[in-house]
Structures are given as C-alpha cells and as structure tokens.
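Hi R.,

Quick one: here's the ATP phosphoribosyltransferase sequence you asked about.
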Amino acid sequence: MAAASSLTRFTLTFYAPPAAVAACKAAIFAAGAGRYPGPGGYTECCWSTAGTGQFRPGDASNPHIGSAGALEETPEVRVETLCVGERVARGAVEALKKAHPYEEPAYQVVKLEDF
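And here's the predicted structure, written out as tokens:
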C-alpha cells in the first residue's frame, strides 16, 4: 500500500437533514473519511454549516421530505471532509448512500491537487 502522503486526496461534500447528520458522519468516518495523514493522528474531521436546501421531486419519486411535484425548501446541513485515497473516497460515498435518508442524496467528490 502506498504511503498516505502519496495517495490522492479528495473532498467529500454532502447535504443532509439535521436529524440525519450524526448517522451520516458516523458512516463516512467508519469508512475512513475525515482522517488526516499527519503526525497528529486526527480523525473524524469535518466542517459543517446549516442552510436551506431546495428541490422538486419528480412524479415517480418517493421523497423523504415533501411530495412528488411540489417545490420543497427544507433545513439541511452541508458537511465537508477529507478522503485520503480513492478507495476511502469510494467507500465513504457508499457508506453515505446507505446511511442517508434521502432517495437520492446530494453529494460531490472533488479531487484535490497537491501543491
């Protein structure tokens, strides 16, 4: 296995209703997200902020919040964390999808440059 410093780093960002954030964070951290590869041994690191999400579920949807066809605005929390290595990033996304209550969780993975 490559040294942590030589692995590609990614940022995982996701949005979840406040009541689901703790379970989502626990799932991604168990998959290895939020670990910094330095000598301090930091784990479960993330940044989060509250905001308002907006979406309109399609006619064939089964939304966790709101109803099909109706525009919905709801409180959500945006969470960002580091994933060191593609295996960790993919595992964290898989864990997030299992833990998240939404039919289609909103998330993004961004590959980081090493300067």
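The radius of gyration is 16 Å.

Cheers,
M.
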